[in-house]
Every structure is written in structure tokens, then in C-alpha cells.
Amino acid sequence: MATPWWTRAAIYQVYPRSFRDLNGDGTGDLRGIVSELPYIAALGVDAVWLSPFYPSPQRDSGYDVADPRAVDPIYGTIEDARELIAQAHARALRVIVDVVPNHSSSERAWFQEALRSEPGSPERARYHFLDGRGLAGDQPPTNWTSWFGGGAWTRVVELDGRPGQWYLHTFDESQPDLNWSNPEVRADGLETLRFWLDMGADGFRVDVALGLAKDMSYPDIDDPESLTLAMRMDLDDGSVDAMNRRRKVANSAVLDRDEVQDVYREWRQVMDEYDGDRMAVAEAWVPPERAARYVAPDTLHQIFNFDFMAAPWDAVRVRGVIEKTMASLSYVGAPPTWALSNHDTPRVVSRLGGGPLGLRRARAMALIAHALPGAVYVYQGEELGLSDALLPDSARQDPVFFRTGGAQLGRDGARVPVPWSGSEPPYGFSDGSLPTWLPQPTDWAAFTVEGEIADPNSALHQYRATLRLRAAHPGLVDQQAFVLPEAPEGVLVLERGAGLRCVVNFTDEAVTSPVSGRVLVASDASVMVEGDRVTLPPSTGAWLQT
Ligand code: NOJ
Q1: Is residue 76 part of a domain?
Q2: Is the pTM of this model over 0.85?
Q3: Which residues approach ligand 1 with their CB closer than 6 A?
Q4: Residue 205: helix, strand or coil by DSSP?
């Protein structure tokens, strides 16, 4: 029996706000995505993951969902969504949609009903409403903190005008947490899954998959700041300290509780009712020893690998993450996943040093990511080698910036609209009648899709080459064939089947590759081949056919 597509897929993340704007309002839309499906298909990927496009006040760029089974007019209509799925399928691209079960928008009808209802009412029981502590109830019910900074509870004003109960929000106060111990919430979640499955969606990316279950005795936790710190990608340097910060909050009152898997067991049964190998990937940044729970045969299918995303530019550390990842998932038989960036993290070029050096490293890291067994995710613009945009504070939109009083800049720099063509903003992203929702840098002319198509040495050509080979090379198709052989210090070698090897030089000196062969793809034009000898300048790599 053929293995399901998602066990070895390449999946392209589209962030709809910033992909392509066809109606000229400065924000991307679904018809814009349809118009660029040929571009996505030409990359050689198997699927598209769409970040949320549901009705939303956009306080957290759509991760504050007011109606999980509809389309926000800024992105188009439900017919556009249907068309997008149909057109993607016509190009052999699967479609993964985002589901956001941990919380809703405060503008969802449910939350508005809860505000109009009494304490203890069924309407309030869909969320976490509690009386405050202290004689006047003016202290939050627990010491839990929000991932976005500040406290995780906000007090409401009751119908009689008096300050009343508090509600929980792990994120912004406009994102109240849903109560997943409530059967009505559970049933509604299944209805959302069925809605998109019926529409033809091939899978789901499950937002905050580790957060749905809470300890409903609502205990205080030790060191509440650790909750905020543990999830800050900008603080994670792949170190033991960073891992320990996450260990502290894993399997705690608020995160990664074992009961969360009961929800996914129900979800899995629903997905299994449908044909076509539907799948779900968990956004759950948990230590490796907790990961397998999310991808057991009766729970979800994949889990994002944030440790790989956080790995520093260091051959030993990258190797260590790869080995740990493979080991942690092997006993449940789930495929690992690999990603270098997403809409929540600094772009990989910036994370690995920025500028030309960051780009060299990022391109070499992409050779590794694309050569690994399992599934690989590519965040839009990564294939162009984009870095984070520097933005004026006045342009920022991320609630992280506002909730921390500007102490953290937030994630907007990685979310700037994609440059398609031309030499100045909006670079073909929109027709320019209205400003783009985030301003694009004025020096992106060298990074447009059009410019990179014309340059055979561009990041785009490298991504196309490796992603296409991934789909066709027998050594990459075979998921069993994978070895990490010993290599000289500062060099990483990956062996896949059928003579395919990936070699990357992490050092600041040129090295002779310990393996020779024909260069299939190089991360830089300076990689040199003389007879049997392949020379890798600093921060470069190659795929070799031996
Ligand atoms: C993770 C999403 O990727 C992020 O963008 C969002 O802010 C939080 N979850 C809350 O939904």
C-alpha cells in the first residue's frame, strides 16, 4: 500500500493577508492566491497551508476567529474558498486550512452572548469565566500569564454595570479561551472540521494544539512568567536553557495536558470517515519526550518541529536536533516535520545573522531541511530569501508589540507582503491604489519573484530544484533510507538512498567535501567541482549524486 501523501509532503504556507492582493485594498485575498497557484505548483510542493481567512476583527491577524465556518469579506467569499480548493486540486495541490480551537474572537456571537448572560449560565460555560479573588473579587482568579505578555485574565462589567467575573485569555484579551470540557464546544469543533472536510480540505493545521485542556481546579502555577518566556521564539537559541524553560510549562495546569488528546481522538475518528488521507498537523511546541502523544495512530498526524526551527548555525546542534526528532517520533511511527520559519518567527535569513551572511546560511540550511525524511514546510517568501522587514513602530499591528509596551517588537517583520515584480513597493503585490497593510522595504527589488526567476543562481531556483527533486528522486522518495554519517568538524553530511547526499559547511573556512559526486544543487554559485573534488566555501552546501 502506498504511504499517505502527508508522510513525505512539501507544504507551502500561505499567509493570506500578505500573499497577493487582487482587489487593490492593500490586503491579500483568496482570489489573489488562486491567481498565483501556478507559481506555487511550479515550486514543486504537494500542498498549501492557508493561515486563517475567517471573519475576524483582525486583532491578531485572523487568529481571532469570529466565525470558524465562513470567510472574512476582506479575503473574499465562501465561493472564493470553494474555487481556491477546486483550482488547487486541479493542479494536484492539496489544501490544509488552519483551525483555531483554543480561543475565539471576543466578537464571536458566543462570547457576546456570554457577556450578556449571568455568571454560571450555559453561555458562560463555553469559556472560562471565574469569580476573582480577594474580598471584592478584584484579583484575577489565577496567576497565569498571557503568551503575549501581561496577565491572562480580564474582568468584565456585568449587566447591572458592576465589575464582575473574569475570563481567561491565553493570548490577547480579544481572544477568550474556549472551554473544551464543554460538550457543546466539542461538538462545535467537530462541526467546523466537517464543514471544511466537506468543502474538500485535505487537512488542518491545529493552532495552539497544546492548549485546549486546562486544569479546571484553576491552581496557581510556579513561576508564572515562565509561561510567557517558554513560548518566545525570539529567546530560543536552541540551548538547554531554552528547552528547560519549555519543560517547565509542558504538562502543566495550562499547557500540554494529557486530556487534550481526548479531543484529538474524536477528531481523528471524524477525519478517518473521509476518504483521501485527510490529515492534521499540531502546532505544539513541546519537548521531544512529549511530542509522540500528538501523533499517535489515534490522535493527529504530524507535529511541528520547533526545535529544528530554533536550531542555531552549528553543525553539532543541528545534527543533535535531527537525531532527537527522529528518535522521539519513531516509536509511534509518525513522520517528522521540518520548517525553517513561519509567520510567528523571525525569517530564517534574519535569525541566522541577517544580510548576505544570513542568506548564505539560510540557503544552506534549506538544503538540509529539504533532504530530510518526513514532511517539510516552506513559509511564503522563504524561497525568495527574504529577511525580516524593519518597520516603523507606527506601522506595527501585532498585539505582542502593544501588550509588552513595545518591549518586544512582535512578528510583523516576518509578515510583510510578498514582492512579485518591479523595482518599488508594492512590487506587484497589489495595484497600489491603497497602501499595503504593512509597508514593504524599499530595497526588495532584488528579491522579487520576477527578478529571481531571471537569475539562475537565486534562492528561488534553489528551492525549485530541491523541492522538485524531493518529489522525484528515488533516494528522497524512499523514507527508510536515511543515515547521518560521521563528518569532519563543522560539516554535516546527510545520506539518503540511491546515492543522494547533502553536505553543508558550517565553518568560516572553505572545506573539501568529505563526499564527492555530481552536484545536483548548490546553495551558492561559488561551490566548486574539480574532478572528484568538491570545494565548499564558508556557509555553503550542495546536494551530490554519488
Ligand atoms: C499561533 C499562531 O500561529 C499565532 O500567529 C497566533 O498569534 C497564536 N497561535 C494565537 O492564535
Answers
A1: no
A2: yes
A3: 60, 63, 100, 171, 207-208, 283, 343-344
A4: strand
